Amino acid sequence: MWGILRRSAVDGGGFSASSLRRTRFALVSARSYAAGSKEMTVRDALNSAIDEEMSADPKVFVMGEEVGQYQGAYKITKGLLEKYGPERVYDTPITEAGFTGIGVGAAYAGLKPVVEFMTFNFSMQAIDHIINSAAKSNYMSAGQINVPIVFRGPNGAAAGVGAQHSQCYAAWYASVPGLKVLAPYSAEDARGLLKAAIRDPDPVVFLENELLYGESFPISEEALDSSFCLPIGKARIEREGKDVTITTFSKMVGFVLKAAEKLAEEGISAEVINLRSIRPLDRATINASVRKTSRLVTVEEGFPQHGVCAEICASVVEESFSYLDAPVERIAGADVPMPYAANLERLALPQVEDIVRAAKRACYRSK
Amino acid sequence: MALSRLSSRSKGISRPLSAAFSRSISTDTTPITIETSLPFTAHLCDPPSRSVESSTQELLSFFRTMALMRRMEIAADSLYKAKLIRGFCHLYDGQEAVAIGMEAAITKKDAIITAYRDHCIFLGRGGSLYEVFAELMGRQDGCSKGKGGSMHFYKKDSSFYGGHGIVGAQVPLGCGIAFAQKYSKEEAVTFAMYGDGAANQGQLFEALNISALWDLPSILVCENNHYGMGTAEWRAAKSPSYYKRGDYVPGLKVDGMDAFAVKQACKFAKEHALKNGPIILEMDTYRYHGHSMSDPGSTYRTRDEISGVRQERDPIERIKKLVLSHDLATEKELKDMEKEIRKEVDDAIAKAKDCPMPEPSELFTNVYVKGFGTECVLCSVQGPLCEF
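Predict the joint structure of the above. Result:
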């Protein structure tokens, strides 16, 4: 649909790029729902972010499996091939090690690749290039070779895709100095963080979530502007509270917000922090919140051992120990490969009940 | 081998010439044609001619630079044994003709990327002896400010992209650089160098496939020194015809101990890659040292083999014979040149030994281009050093 709009604008003449974009979004949102506020799906947010950055900088190009002709395995890159042509959007063979290495090499030479992994599970085939070729190069070369690349794609569990397609890689990548690791939740997060990632001169691992792609979120005028950008390294307080701090990222933010509603019914006021940035972690915001509430619950989808939650707990214990009124709580995915059966899969992932129970425990309301 | 004797080169005329270059290389660019010692073997292409265009200046500079490279590597050996160089140290002596022949065929806009045996490539790209020794000894004036080490030399202003420790990784990276060159319409090529050990890596074939599909100006250069660490090529590769391993990608097998053959092949490859996409060059070469300074290099090959190659195929000896037969210098003049080189190397080492180690605050620099100001990560033990 966007391709068609674009063509008619070119034929008709007289449209500026940004006014066309606003028109497009207005059309989309007018169809979606009630008049007044604008909404946007995460998918559209990501697509528009890539589109705008490609338009602004000719060095930005997209590479990955099915990103071009297929319009993207999850339609994130829809319309980009038609708009920018095969010199900016590259369909690769199914060879992650090869094309990731090529992407990193292109970044060495000054281009700005946006490399898509169909899921981050497949990034393991290319992880040497992400870590040894990309993350460490600026340091090893003492600043001669920087790597302005973005590795993006869906991360974590989807629905029923089994053990090899469900792992969360946030903890793995966030442990590496030289990488920046981002995890958006809302459409605004998606737009602002992806634009920041593409503009960033360092390698960024951008962890999306398949189940969030179709979700709609309200989006501000500011966020729709093509110059919109969110800072890397700052968390967002999604909901203010005074009794317990609950931190999380990606899809779990939605679950934690639901849990906060339930907790509010029982008189517990939860402060919900959407991390947005896993590396660097916004320790300042997390600790300031814990110093206010005195209690911490950390939530993630990934495996518990050596996880993002473990890092947050350690940081809070190190920096805000005397403020804690209860032991820190970790809610993570079960320590098992993801099972297929629907009931087991549900048991393997944090649910709203688990988060509520942990928050109550931190507030001495339950065992 | 055809030796073209230039009639103007009598001993009388060469004397002032030699006086000139006992201080510096002659600037005389009289053309010479050199025949390569062996023919090229080709796969899916027509091999280039064995007659290589050169000049007196080039011939002399080949000798000088290769002798410099040789001396530098031997000095590194001593420094390693004196424990001034730590960790890994992979020496290139024996393979100098590849580095020098390649440089003679290309410009600094053409890119080179290689593995960890990178000291001489760095020198060939314009790096200085001082930067080499300072980096090897972990000092702040090293080419990577002491933070890279032997395996991580870079010189971006000469399109030298390192210096890579993971076997085979540099090949897709090199194809990526070639991608960028094509994307930016630079009319330049990338030489991605790797060894016979790396030649079996899957990512090579992935990168070659994409290079061929997208017509990237990538030139894959296999420096076949016949041993992947301690494993001889016949124990590692079902097909050790590395120039053919590209299947649908053309290849050329080159005598890697002959700097002129290397030059001709690289010139041919550059023309090919700019028009037709990737090509593989297999350089038949040899390393005198073991895989690294931790490897004596004699448990998997005989001393006779090593000394045999040194006697029959040494690349510097070959150039020396050419210089002498073309009357460009006398034995004594070449010996004087070698003495000068030795001194140059010794001076660079002395200066590097005096260079201080990096400041402690450098621990936290260059992690990112765009760091986070005063937000320190895990610096409770590091105190105020950790701003980056």
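Residues 108 and 311 of chain A are 31 Å apart (CA to CA).
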